Automatic annotation (TrEMBL), chain A:
Gene3D superfamilies: Dipeptide-binding Protein, Domain 3, Periplasmic binding protein-like II. PANTHER family: OLIGOPEPTIDE-BINDING PROTEIN APPA (PTHR30290:SF9), PERIPLASMIC BINDING COMPONENT OF ABC TRANSPORTER (PTHR30290). Residues 85-437 form the Solute-binding protein family domain. Belongs to the bacterial solute-binding protein 5 family. Residues 1-27 form the signal peptide. Keywords: Signal, Transport. This is ABC transporter substrate-binding protein.
TrEMBL record, chain B:
InterPro entries: BPD_transp_1_N, MetI-like, MetI-like_sf. It comes from the Bacteria. The keyword Transmembrane helix applies. The lineage of its organism: Bacteria, Bacillati, Actinomycetota, Actinomycetes, Micromonosporales. It comes from Paractinoplanes ovalisporus. The chain crosses the membrane at residues 21-42, 114-138, 150-169, 189-208, 246-268, 288-311. This is ABC transporter permease.
Length: 534, 325
């Protein structure tokens, strides 16, 4: 679930994902010491990004999920182990044949922290609010694409309808982006929920100082955690303080000096040293689109699949992750990451020789400076990427440049501010681009990689792929979905429509008193089951 | 216009203030106009950035709706006039990102920024002036040589490096102050030192060379001849005479301390105007950028007024000049 959005774009705005609170989470067993959870205490975690707006219905930032997940519950929950969708605020649901009408039966007894009930009217108020242009929802509204309305059948039953099949909606409904908030809190306008989200989750927003910290306080009387959670009643922690420290060194230094209990978004470089010094580093590959490169197949000469295949074979993800990420991130095996449901491995081993053979066969021969050309045209790719880049993606671009140069393909690197990059891409004026995107559902390929409207960057205009993705979106039958999505991934690999490089991975370092630290389905830290042993 | 008695400086000060306040109006108009122009010249489009970072792709329909919602579909001159009209009412508009009033965002960020800039200014002046005076008074050649070279070093140190070093030593190793946050005086010390060092360097440099020049002036010889001690000559006579450029410098520095503290703010996890600007810049949040520019413009006008008034106390010639105009 969840889309923390790590697009080229998000580079700064949402660098790295965030830590997430609460429900929807597995607890990893941690080291030695007491094994009976203790109640109370404060967990302080340093994270890298300020959410800007805390309301996940408005903000696309993964940082908004960090705090939002603990505060809002969703209709359904996604099990971090295996990705199955299980009851949460809805105790059961049915979907029609075409995946256009979703009927949810709500559980009884759940309330928002303002005391109002989580009922059918509240569900309708939430979804209607998300699609209202005045809310300026940036991501949540996209998840409800094609939404035609919610019908309240009775106090505990709602039907959510779409104009076209939207099988991905169930998983989307498990994310904090579509999490339910108290309808009364909408009255004061979107700006007010940016500061204080009111949900039915195990925590409430106690304080938010932008650019500095978010304080969550435990809510008494929480009794509706998803089944897979390690416990069922109130959260163990009395308080969670999320402090914002964008500098890697400051986060790890604060952890070492005991000023914080946990450091999120740890850089691979710091991870080994922290591990050695007794600060366990928890790691989880995030679900969604792997960090991938795209060659614009709508542009000459890159409409030739042989050239795209050559580029794909020339890039060596294994060497890249070893050099840049000390193998803490894994090389990608498909355009989806392995933690995404319906993932299938499609990657072929890198081979400069094979790349060279493909290029030779296509008639591109090495000219001056080793760069190939054909009929006087140089084999060159312009790559405009967002700077400043996160996760050392600027260095990654240079490695890719070297690896492609070795087979005679020139890459011209054009680091540019977010605005420039998006402006160019939305005009279709791009040759090479890169993204990663957080969401634990294979439907992410349809929403992110494919645009019917000829919009955003890697527009994958491939008929066969479009059919596979549409088929996946039109059925909630697991077997049929899996088949469609396996085919889609194979098609992407075969046509070299995307070149997956690495699996974005969340590294969470904690001190020894932190227990039960774990991750939710999309790979963000959760704290509902977390406790401190001191 | 020799209407005021020579001794009546306060009347002259008032008239000077009034004249400066009037001239501040076109200056402010210029500042907000330039700010408006510049933010709209930045390549890229806020709506595309919002949708591009958030959604899967920019759906033209949603783009149009959002653009209308944010009133970005109106012609630029209309937007400019609406901006000016709202500004006159004291309304800086709403953030494109969060919909919060810009005045509230600026006010919220200005508090910690003012505290930080104020502390840094005081620290910088004390360190800089102290260094310059010590360099003038000391008999040790070594110390004098060191004190005359240190300012250049202090100016050259990158803020990022200084901040990281200070954190490593004083927070992570010695545990004297918290690394993050803006609560309590402890949290202000390190970021203030980070900002104060280059300022101290400039102050020491300017004041030091001023003092060395003043040393050759006849009034110094006169004072010495009348039996004043070296310390008294430096502190009472020379310092006052060389203080004018330092005051000017302090005035102009406050602006950069207020808006330019982004490195210190980011590393030390403090809210502030610097981060507000950078964040707004990344998201092309026009109203916030314009609001901060307007705020900084007003602040600079007020500070330059204070500086002008300070001149009249430091240097009687300033008052005479004002009188003769």
């Amino acid at each position: 679930m969840s889309y923390g959005v790590s697009r080229p774009v998000r580079a700064l705005a949402v660098p790295a994902v965030v830590a997430l609170l609460a429900a929807g989470c597995t607890a990893e067993p941690t080291s030695s010491g007491s094994t009976t959870p203790k109640r109370g205490g404060t967990l302080t975690i340093a994270t890298d990004t300020d959410p800007g707006c805390l309301d996940p219905q408005q903000s696309p930032a993964a940082a908004a999920l960090l705090t939002g997940r603990g505060v809002v519950d969703s209709l359904v929950a996604q099990d971090p182990t295996g990705g199955a969708l299980v009851p949460w605020l809805a105790e059961s649901w049915t979907v029609d044949q075409r995946a256009t009408a979703f009927t949810f039966k709500l559980r009884t007894g759940a309330t928002f922290s303002d005391g109002s009930p989580v009922d059918a009217a509240a569900v309708k108020a939430n979804f209607d609010r998300i699609v209202d242009p005045a809310t300026k929802s940036l991501l949540a509204a996209g998840l409800l694409a094609g939404y035609t309305g919610t019908t309240v059948s009775d106090e505990r039953t709602v039907v959510v309808r779409f104009g076209q099949p939207n099988a991905g909606f169930l998983q989307a409904a498990s994310t904090a982006f579509l999490g339910l908030q108290a309808p009364a809190s909408f009255a004061a306008g979107p700006a007010s929920t940016c500061r204080a989200v009111v949900g039915s989750g195990p925590f409430t927003v106690a304080d938010y100082v932008p650019q500095q910290q978010v304080v969550l306080a435990r809510r008494a009387g929480y009794r509706w955690a998803p089944k897979f959670a390690a416990h069922q009643d109130d959260a163990y922690l009395e308080k969670v303080v999320v402090t914002i420290a964008s500098d890697n060194g400051v986060r790890s230094g604060s952890l070492r000096s005991g000023q914080v209990d946990a450091a999120g978004a740890v850089s691979p470089r710091d991870a080994a040293a922290l591990d050695q010094d007794g600060f366990p580093v928890h790691k989880r590959e995030q679900a969604g689109i792997a960090y991938s490169l795209f060659v614009n197949s709508a542009k000459e000469p890159w409409n030739d699949v042989a050239l795209r295949r050559a580029v794909s074979r020339a890039i060596d993800p294994a060497l890249i992750v070893k050099t840049l990420y000390q193998d803490r991130y894994a090389p990608a095996g498909s355009v989806l990451t392995p933690t995404t449901p319906d993932y299938v491995a499609t990657a072929q081993p890198a081979s400069a020789a094979e790349a060279a053979r493909l290029l030779d066969a296509a008639g591109w021969v090495a000219g001056p400076g080793g760069i190939r050309s054909k009929n006087g045209q140089r084999l060159s790719l312009r790559w405009s990427y967002v700077a400043p880049a996160r996760e050392q993606r600027d260095l990654l671009a240079q490695l890719v440049q070297q690896q492609l140069k070795a087979v005679g393909v020139e890459v011209v690197l054009e680091p540019a501010p977010v605005g420039d990059v998006i402006a160019k891409q939305s005009k279709g004026d791009w040759e090479m681009s890169d993204i990663s995107f957080l969401r634990a559902d294979a439907d992410v390929m349809r929403t992110v990689l494919q645009s019917s409207a000829g919009g955003r960057p890697p527009v994958v205009a491939d008929q066969a792929l479009a059919r596979d993705l549409a088929a996946g979106a039109a059925t909630t039958e697991p077997e049929a979905r899996r088949n469609s999505y396996h085919e889609a991934q194979q098609r992407i690999a075969d046509q070299a429509l995307a070149i997956p490089v690495y699996n974005p991975t969340y590294l969470l370092a904690v001190n020894k008193s932190v227990r039960g630290a774990g991750f939710d389905a999309q790979g963000l830290p959760q704290f509902y089951d977390t406790w401190v042993d001191r | 216009m020799w209407r005021t008695r020579p001794g009546d400086r306060s009347g002259i000060r008032w008239r000077m203030l009034r004249r400066r306040l009037l001239s501040a109006v076109p200056v402010l108009l210029g500042v907000v106009t330039v700010a408006f122009g510049i933010v709209h010249m930045i390549p890229g489009d806020p709506v595309q950035i919002m949708l591009g970072t958030g959604g899967a792709f920019v759906d033209p329909e949603r783009e149009a709706v959002l653009r209308h919602e944010l009133r970005l579909d109106r012609p630029l001159p209309d937007q400019y006039l609406a901006f000016l009209a709202a500004l006159l009412r004291g309304d800086l508009g709403k953030s494109l990102q969060t919909g919060e009033p810009v005045t509230a965002l600026v006010a919220e960020a200005a508090g910690p920024s003012l505290a930080l800039a104020g502390t840094a200014l005081v620290l910088g002046l004390l360190l800089g002036a102290g260094g310059a005076v010590l360099g003038e008074l000391t008999r040790s050649r070594l110390l004098r040589a060191m004190l005359s070279r240190l300012p250049v070093l202090a100016m050259a140190l990158p803020a990022y490096w200084v901040a990281t070093l200070l954190l490593q030593v004083f927070s992570f190793r010695l545990g004297l102050v918290p690394a993050l946050g803006s609560t309590g005086p402890g949290a202000t010390v390190l970021p203030a030192v980070t900002l104060a060092l280059p300022l101290a360097g400039v102050v020491a440099h300017v004041l030091g060379s001023g003092l060395r020049t003043a040393d050759r002036e006849s009034y110094v010889l006169m004072a010495r001849a009348k039996g004043a001690t070296r310390a008294r000559v430096v502190l009472r006579h020379m310092l006052r005479n060389t203080a004018v450029p330092v005051v000017t410098l302090s005035g102009t520095t406050v602006g950069s301390l207020l808006g330019g503290g982004v490195v210190a703010e980011t590393i030390f996890g403090r809210p502030g105007l610097g981060r507000l600007i950078v964040n707004a810049l990344q998201n092309h949040d026009y109203p916030v950028l314009q609001g901060v520019a307007a705020f900084l413009g007003i602040t600079m006008v007020v500070i330059s007024l204070i500086v002008d008034v300070a001149y009249t106390y430091l240097d009687p010639r300033v008052v005479s000049a004002a009188v003769w105009k």
